[in-house]
Amino acid sequence: MSFKVRAASSASLLCVLVASSFAQRVEIVKPHDYRPPILASSPSLKTALDEAVAAVIASHKPQGLKSEEIAVTVIDLRDAARFHSADHRGEEKIYPASVVKMFYMAALERQLEDKKVTMTTELTRGLKDMIVDSSNEATQYILDVLTNTASGAEMPRNQFEAWQFKRNRVNRWFASMGYTNINVNQKTFCEDAYGIEQQSRAYKGQNRNMITTNATARLMAEIVTGNIATPERTARMMNLMKRDPFAKSDDPDSQSTGFTGKLFIDRKMNGVKLWSKAGWTSRTRHDAAYVETPDGLKFVIAVYTENQANEKDIIPSIAGKVMDAMRK
């Protein structure tokens, strides 16, 4: 009897060791020398942001814009050693739409760096289409690659839990770096999710992607400053998010001209550099942007809006007022 118990225990231990070894081969792991950025709350930036939000709410009174329909985080990057930040509802969890694709891009670059994923022609195409064109189909492919999961039929509980554990791989990576209050484990769709994807959302959307503007701005800042990956990889991410506000486009929702970039078009501000990832649905309109101006401003601004998807002036108006205040 004791032999059988010891044998069973040995078998269990072997299973644990094998599972642990496999997890190390596929888990997304933060760099060994990773240090979270220092975020210092700035009273002056907070005052500027509060005034900007209040002014935009007042100017959109006919549209019924409310304070609780806006979340904003600003990070001043002029001091590379210490980020100065401020937020309005920055810890509010909001459905991020396509802004989540920036999180998947960062996770993919980490897996590529650790050689847990191999870059192919198709993966290169998918990464570009996910960020440059905001393709949902490309995003579905990228998330499958990151988590070794695939869409399909609903599963029995025990099989589903194993599947969902793998799908949470990106969440575990961001949690290991100190990101909180976010959920980044779902595909993006043009219409709706079906089968196991709907099962993963808990059917009524309780497990949908949710991100704060604080987390969004932090990730953008970490990409900009090279803190999240090697210089080569952060440069590649920046290149995919590079936008030209003055590029001709017939798309009213162009990431270059329809969000933060609209500010520079309206003001005819040539010489401004812009990197961004936007997201929009029938009820949300968001943008995460990094801006460099000819007079030396360097800042990240993440703006999420709800129930105001057709109001295209909210994001550029807030960005413009914050930018003007930073110059004083």
Summarize this entry quickly.
By secondary structure, the chain is of the alpha+beta class. Helices cover 45% and strands 13% of the residues.
Structural description of this entry:
The structure is a single chain. This protein has 328 residues and is α+β, with helices and mostly antiparallel strands. It has two domains: 39-91 and 241-328, Beta-Lactamase (2-Layer Sandwich), CATH 3.30.450; 95-211, no CATH class. 45% of the residues lie in helices and 13% in strands. It has twelve helices and seven strands. It has helices at 2-26, 43-59, 100-113, 121-132, 136-147, 157-167, 169-176, 196-200, 213-224, 231-241, 261-266, 314-326, and strands spanning 39-41, 70-76, 83-88, 242-243, 273-280, 284-292, 298-306. It has a seven-stranded mixed β-sheet, with helices on both faces. Helix 2 (43-59) runs antiparallel to helix 12 (314-326), helix 3 (100-113) packs across helix 5 (136-147) and helix 4 (121-132) crosses helix 5. The N and C termini lie far apart (80 Å).
Helices and strands in order:
Layout: H1 2-26, E1 39-41, H2 43-59, E2 70-76, E3 83-88, H3 100-113, H4 121-132, H5 136-147, H6 157-167, H7 169-176, H8 196-200, H9 213-224, H10 231-241, E4 242-243, H11 261-266, E5 273-280, E6 284-292, E7 298-306, H12 314-326
Parallel strand pairs: 1-3
Antiparallel strand pairs: 2-3, 2-7, 4-5, 5-6, 6-7
Helix pairs in contact: 2-12, 3-5, 4-5
Tell me the name of the CATH class of the largest domain. Answer: Alpha Beta
- Strand arrangement within the widest β-sheet reads 1-3-2-7-6-5-4
**General shape:** globular
Q: What proportion strand?
A: 5-15%
Low-confidence stretches: 1-8, 11-22
Percent helix, as a range, is: 40-55%
Rg, rounded, reads: 21 Å
- In N-to-C order, the SSE pattern is HEHEEHHHHHHHHEHEEEH
Task: Find the count of extended strands (DSSP E, 2+ residues).
Answer: 7
State the CATH topology of the largest domain: Beta-Lactamase
Largest sheet: 7 strands, mixed
- Helix-and-strand structural type: alpha+beta
Task: Give the domain tally.
Answer: 2
Intertermini distance = 80 Å
Averaged pLDDT, please? 93
Number of helices: 12
CATH architecture of the largest domain: 2-Layer Sandwich
